[in-house]
Write a structure and sequence with these properties.
By secondary structure, the protein is an all-alpha fold. It has one domain (3-317): Na+/H+ antiporter like fold. It is built from 15 helices and no strands. It has helices spanning 3-28, 34-58, 62-65, 68-91, 96-107, 111-123, 128-155, 163-175, 178-192, 198-209, 211-223, 234-259, 264-274, 280-288, 293-317.
Length: 318
Amino acid sequence: MRTGSVLAILFIILPIFGLIAAGWALRRVGVFGAGTTAELNRFVIWLALPALMFDIVATARWADIWQPGYIGAFSGGIAVIFCATILVGRALRRSLPDAVVDGLNAGYSNTAYVGFPLAAAALGPGSRTGVLIACILTMTILFAISLALVELGLHGRGAGGGIGAIAQRVGTRLVRSPLVVAPAIGALVLASGLGLPAPLHAFASLLGAAASPCALVALGLFLGEQRREGEQALPTVAALTALKLIGQPLVTWVLAVQVFALDARTTTLAVLIAALPTGTGAWMVSAIYTRDPAVTARVLLATTIGSVLTLTVLLSVI
């Protein structure tokens, strides 16, 4: 591995993680209060990221979005790690909701907050459609499956445990999410064939441009929150971190190369997104259902810090 290539990759990675570090440091020293994290996250989730996702879909071509090999490799990597983690958790007598949160910690990539800026810096703006596909697979399909499994574990044998009731609760959460609604509206615009009016495109582009920097700072603010966490969780955090940063990209690479025979650029994108740190969706599920969110917060912090090294090595090799 040449020193020059490592430095070039670090020049790509460090500015992105520098924004996370800036948010973390400013929260730690008290420049930003506790309410800042929630408010900046609301801006990202309700305005900036939906605008970016809507703009990408509305201005795309169906051939760009429908990439079955890429979808198969990336979703296969998620499925293997997510399901294996749940099965191991159940074998260790963890409840189904706790095992599902472990699965999210190991298989839920931070596609939106870190994926867009990192892929754009490493592979160019042409990568954003692939990142969007990964966002949809992660934030919609994986998130929905996880909610359904947690609901099944909590209510499967009691009141409100019917399939219809569980589907209604999960569906309600999804249709209320702007990160699900925005690309769906973009798909309607794309299907209409009318194109996106220039003023609307300019509006969405300007707002979407704020998504990456604000999302990265918001992630840093979240990671900078003071939390009380027991040392007994360290083995679990270490195992989940290894699965996320090493296991998932390795499985994705095997599927991309050996099963779907993807080209080098598509393989790099699929593996890069699989190697991202754990996303905040995992923490959302753990917090909603009070499944020890402190452990998930530690996994987010550990994978975010560790991914600086693993992503540098990954990009150098690939």
